[in-house]
User: Fold this.
Amino acid sequence: MPHHPNTPPAIARLISGMRAFRTTYYEQRPEPLRRLVTAGQSPEVLVIACSDSRVDPAIITNAEPGDLFVVRNVANLVPPYVADGTARGTSSAIEFAVRDLGVRHIIVLGHSRCGGIQALIDHTGGKALGRDFIAPWVSMVAHTAAQVPRGPEFSADPERRARQIGQHAILASLKNLHEFPWIEERVKAGTLDLRGWWFDLEHGELWAATVDEKDFAKVAL
Ligand SMILES: [Zn+2]
Assistant:
């Protein structure tokens, strides 16, 4: 069926992309996807990523269907462990990945030029965001902005402060993951590991949290 003549270009691009995907994964090499359909998914990796359109974890890691279980939210935050019966999207995705799918690795994936981190900086700097949900969401890691106080060293390069706060926020999310009892249990048993990754959008570089989860080091690509 041809596109409706009024199909907007952005939507038409997605439909033709879907056609290309179907050609590759259903016609040219259908086996892997057929296996995923009949046997079910068993991804080894959970990625907690930002909703930002430029940092799709499957695209930047060249992953295949079935490789990554992904939860995305503003600024790739893991909320504190609170099991009080409230509906919690990120925590329920984490629970499904860990307790039902049995992932072996969790990656918290942050990035430079993050609008969520900028909102955190603006909000903690006293600027009114004028948004309904963003300020309380990013406030979850407000302490990370306090850990990197404004100073003369950042005046010429405010992105440097945003980068440090973004990386601190990843470490704060790792800390929160450790508080989930069924995560820490598996980490202690050696069946699950936690990683913090930070993607440098300008240069296509990857930085990873050090094993003590206190700092970041560049990964050789
Ligand atoms: Zn972001």
User: Anything to note?
Assistant: The two ends are 43 Å apart (CA to CA). The chain has a mean pLDDT of 96.
